[in-house]
Amino acid sequence: MTHTIVNPEGLHDPVPFGYSHTATIPAGAELVLVSGQYGSGTDGMVVSTDFAGQVQQAFRNLGVALAAHDLDLTHVVQLRTYVVNPDFEKLGIIGQAVGAGSNGTPPTQTVIGVAALAMPDILFEVEAVAARP
């Protein structure tokens, strides 16, 4: 394992919401930083106007970026997700996407609500910090 996730007693269980409270990275691990990925195709254009479709594509894109370093979502220590006009439904969609790729132990995550992202059609963006031993 490239890192350790800890969800301390005394804090609510965040796992059903698709994140964990804390993570540690051992000395000597290499960090891989992935810039914001959104629901784009290889041409850079948004592939769907649907929020869930954009989340799925953004996480596929994140997977491609991680795979370029022989990593996957299980190596991710921290996510930052940016959501246009967040609500509980959108948070649930994000939680499902993170949970599907994290083998039941999601990384730390901060969800940031924004009024807009880089282009008007983008509704969701995710950036990541991954650790490789």
Can you describe this structure?
The chain is an alpha+beta fold and 133 residues long. It has a single domain (4-132), classed as 60s Ribosomal Protein L30, Chain: A, CATH 3.30.1330.40. The chain is 23% helix and 30% strand. It has 2 helices and 6 strands. The strands form 2 sheets. A 4-stranded mixed β-sheet has the order 3-6-4-5. A two-stranded antiparallel ribbon has the order 1-2. Helix 1 packs parallel to helix 2. The longest helix has 17 residues, at 51-67. The mean pLDDT is 95.
Give me the secondary-structure category. alpha+beta
Oligomer: single chain
Unreliably modeled segments = none
Q: For the record, what is the CATH homologous superfamily label?
A: RutC-like
**Briefly, what CATH class?**
Alpha Beta
* Alpha-carbon distance between the two ends: 8 Å
CATH architecture: 2-Layer Sandwich
The fraction of residues assigned to DSSP E strands is: 25-35%
Number of strands: 6
Number of domains: 1
Could you give a short account of the major beta sheet? Answer: 4 strands, mixed
Side-by-side strand order of the widest sheet:
3-6-4-5
Helix content: 10-25%
Give helix and strand order, one letter per element, not per position: EEEHEHEE
Radius of gyration: 14 Å
